[in-house]
Specification:
Blueprint (H helix, E strand, L loop, with lengths): L2 H5 L12 H5 L4 H29 L10 H37 L7 H23 L13 H4 L5 H28 L12 H33 L12 H34 L7 H14 L15 H29 L8 H24 L1 H7 L3 H31 L5 H27 L14 H31 L34
Helix pairs in contact: 3-4, 3-5, 3-16, 4-7, 4-8, 4-9, 4-14, 5-7, 7-8, 8-9, 8-10, 9-11, 9-12, 9-14, 10-11, 11-12, 12-14, 12-15, 14-15, 15-16
The chain binds copper (I) ion.
Length: 525
């Protein structure tokens, strides 16, 4: 069949111009989304390389591959690359940039030039951070806890902090752009409660990005001030307080977890509705739950500090507040189940990832309850139980949700379908590999293995070998989509405007969409 050439849309945002400059100076939200995809994938490769080194080291108990100092640097740089350069931008900056304006019928985001600038800021932040990594690295842990980060001299704290400070503006500006876009550029007739739930999720996320990110930027600046000028902020010898650092750090970094997880929750809403052929059950509850999670995210930060000498009354208060995050999260999970119930469910590959997301996110959330319980947290604190918990939320949740979204919108982005066979294999590999990697870590953590050590007693080896073996399956599962998605660009069958039968606005447009859409007049004054 040679339908490809005939049905390919003549002019679209991809083929309208081919020069490198047309990409580097583009103000088109769709192209900027793809540019983010390229850079975030690069950052993922960096982070994954460090993850591979960690799992190789931990395959044997002796700690014989990396020295303890190198190991400290490796897990720190794994965390920094993954958290700041992959998890936080993945769904909002890639998928959000691409589909948000299409979903609400806007021509573009509110500030297209600012959007392009956000990408450049991201790249500059990345260059700083990678430079810090290749010129010695950092070993403070991705959390930069004081006094290590303020007093340890043989470390690239300054360069990394500068990179992350710059990067923060990319996140803030993207959040700002999305908020204004959603407020001002919706199609006439698209009221707040007619917006797709993914848009609600991006809105809630943007609020956190806008309000939370400045706090981490200031905190890192304070670390720099103390390091450079010896002003006593965190160092008790100079009159400072190291616990203050933890408060400031987690005031951003707990909400940051919701920057990572709210957008994939929104993606899952869209997928579950499309692939069960039903509108989402309890739309307004779902929208409200996204906002509730965003608000709650700012008042639970001290649950990271239960063992740091917090007053028991404060600890009880933060424990209770942390438990209450389970309510909106639970609403989401039950609402999905209610939507799936008696729906005409299909098992297309994006949906396989979404099922994986629901299961892994639920395990991640539930194990969070063990950590928000004051008594059990004393046992679990700083063990592999914590490592397993947050990987279930961030990797099982955020990355799985990202993969679901990319597989769902890929035909819209590129106009091509990928191999359904290989994408199903990859979904299964990721699910199996992920559980094999991280479930043993719950057990080994429960048994008492602390995190951030490069050597451990022999009795933990079986579980660690399982974990390392799982990591290689997971790695395969992540590599496969890169291959078949790139392959689909040239050889994939033409997708058509709406291959999944989606009901949101972007599916009414041609695939790939035009450069600028005029299908709806914005309410821009
Ligand atoms: Cu937290």
């Amino acid at each position: 069949m040679t339908t490809t050439a005939v049905t390919e849309s003549p002019v679209n945002y991809l083929n309208v111009k081919h020069t490198v400059a047309s990409w580097l100076f583009t103000k088109d939200h769709k192209r900027i989304g793809l540019m983010y995809m390229l850079t975030v994938t690069l950052a993922f490769l960096v982070g994954a390389t460090f993850a591979g080194l960690i799992r190789l080291e931990l395959a044997t108990p002796q700690g014989d591959l990396l020295s303890s100092d190198t190991y400290n640097r490796v897990f720190t740089m794994h965390g920094i690359a993954m958290v700041f350069f992959v998890l936080i931008p993945a769904v909002p900056a890639i998928i959000g940039n691409f589909v948000l304006p299409l979903m609400i019928g806007a021509k573009d985001v509110a500030f297209p030039k600012l959007n392009l600038m956000s990408w450049y800021v991201f790249v500059i932040g990345f260059i700083f951070t990678v430079t810090a990594m290749v010129t010695g690295g950092v070993e403070t842990g991705w959390t930069f806890y004081t006094p290590l980060s303020t007093t340890y001299l043989n470390s690239n704290v300054m360069l990394t902090a500068t990179g992350l400070f710059i990067l923060g503006f990319s996140s803030i500006l993207t959040g700002l752009n999305f908020i204004v876009t959603i407020h001002r550029m919706r199609c006439p007739g698209m009221g707040w409660f007619r917006m797709p739930l993914f848009v609600w999720a991006l809105y809630a996320t943007s609020v956190i990005q806008l309000l939370g990110t400045p706090v981490i930027a200031i905190t890192l600046a304070l670390v720099a001030v103390e390091r450079l000028l010896g002003v006593g902020i965190f160092d008790p010898r100079l009159g400072g307080d190291p616990i203050l650092y933890q408060h400031l750090f987690w005031f951003y970094s707990h909400p940051a977890v919701y920057i990572m997880i709210l957008p994939p929750l929104g993606v899952t809403n869209e997928l579950i509705s499309t692939f069960s052929r039903k509108p989402i059950f309890g739309y307004s509850m779902m929208a409200g739950a996204s906002l509730a999670i965003a608000i709650f995210s700012f008042i639970v930060w001290a649950h990271h500090m239960f063992t740091s000498g917090l007053s028991p009354y404060a600890a009880m208060f933060f424990s209770l507040l942390t438990f209450s995050v389970a309510i909106p999260s639970g609403i989401k999970v039950f609402t999905w189940l209610a939507t799936l119930f008696r729906g005409s469910i299909s098992f297309d590959s994006p949906m396989l990832y979404a099922y994986g997301f629901i299961g892994l996110f639920t395990i991640g959330g539930m194990t969070g309850l063990f950590l928000s319980t004051l008594g059990t947290d004393i046992h679990f604190h700083d063990t592999y139980f914590v490592v397993a918990h947050f990987h279930y939320v961030m990797v099982g949740g955020a990355i799985m949700g990202f993969l679901a979204g990319i597989h769902y919108w890929w035909p819209k982005m590129t106009g091509r379908m990928y191999s359904e066979f290989f994408s199903r294999i990859s979904a299964i590999l990721v699910f199996v590999g992920f559980n094999l990697t991280f479930f043993p870590q719950f057990i080994v953590g429960y048994l008492g293995m602390p995190r951030r050590y490069h050597a451990y007693p022999d009795e933990f080896q079986v579980l660690n070998v399982l974990s390392s073996a799982g990591a290689s399956v997971l790695g395969l599962g992540y590599a496969l989509p890169v291959i078949y998605l790139i392959y689909s660009l040239k050889k994939g069958p033409v997708a058509g405007p709406n291959p999944w039968g989606g009901s949101t606005l972007e599916w009414t447009m041609q695939s790939p969409p035009l450069l600028v859409l005029h299908n709806c007049q914005p309410r821009w004054p």
